[in-house]
Structures are given as structure tokens and as C-alpha cells.
């Protein structure tokens, strides 16, 4: 094997010049339209893209109709597609290997949170004061009535 054949493949190209794809011959300047795809995208592709774009509103309306289907699988698939079209696909793949105990804990926490939010939405819950009987910390007004020498917040306020 001669050094000449290796030299032509391994040499660096000057800026603005290209090495021919066969690896032989001299460097030649880049010629616009003579490399890559000089004819551009085919007309058939652009025509198909135009037809699909025109049909998009009708397809979106049909997906929304399918979301109200009695078959839960169809409704879920349609809702998933509508969500992906509206907000984009998730960048993180779903993790199917979640421990069942973690799933159960999440469901319990979600149920507790929903119960709490429903309770707080009631008008009488908004008017109630936070008291230690309900499991909340005492208010500052209640703390100020006690011995403040051992209270770090009150002693810090006194030194200001």
C-alpha cells in the first residue's frame, strides 16, 4: 500500500473547499447547487403536506368528538392525542417500573389533598381560625401571651 493513497483520504480540507466523495483528485471550491440535493424537495411531498394541513381542523374536531366516546380506551387515546397536539409530546418517557407501594402512597396523598381542598372550599372553613385542636400551629397572638423568654422568635424581635 502506498503512502499516496492514504494521504489523499486523511488530509484536511481548506476552508471553502471540499474533498471529492471518491477521495481522489485535487480539492475544488464549493459550488452552490452541485452538492446535496440541488433540485430541492420534490413537489409531491409539498402537495401531500398541503393536503394534510387543510384536513387538520376536521381531524382535530373528530378527535375532540372521540374524547366523549363511551369506550374508555378510545376516549383516552383521543384525549392523549389532543393533549399532545395542544401542548407537545412529553420530553420525559413515562416510567413503567414504579413500585406499587409508591403508587398507592401517591394515590393516598392525592385523595387526602383533594379532601383538604374540598374542605377548604367550604365558606365556614374559611372563617375558622387556626387552632391547635385542628392540628395547626398556634398563631403569634397566642404565643405572645405566654412566657417569651424561651421563645426564639420573640427574643430575636426584642433585640432588634
Helix content: 55-70%
Oligomerization category of the chains in this entry: single chain
Rg (CA only): 35 Å
Which class do the helix and strand fractions yield? mainly alpha
Element order: H for helix, E for strand: HEEHHHHHH
N- and C-termini, Cα separation = 87 Å
Please report the total strand number as a whole number. Answer: 2
By DSSP (H or I, 4+ residues per run), the number of helices equals 7
Strands in their spatial order, largest beta sheet: 1-2
* Uncertain ranges: none
Mean pLDDT: 71
Major sheet description: 2 strands, antiparallel
Strand percentage lies at: under 5%
User: What overall geometry do the principal axes of the alpha carbons give?
Assistant: elongated
Summarize the structure in short.
The protein is mostly helical and about 160 residues long.
Structural description of this entry:
The protein has a domain at 43-87. It has seven helices and two strands. It has helices spanning 3-10, 43-67, 72-87, 100-121, 123-127, 140-144, 152-158, and strands spanning 17-18, 28-29. This is DUF5681 domain-containing protein.
List the helices and strands and how they pair.
Layout: H1 3-10, E1 17-18, E2 28-29, H2 43-67, H3 72-87, H4 100-121, H5 123-127, H6 140-144, H7 152-158
Antiparallel strand pairs: 1-2
Helix pairs in contact: 2-3
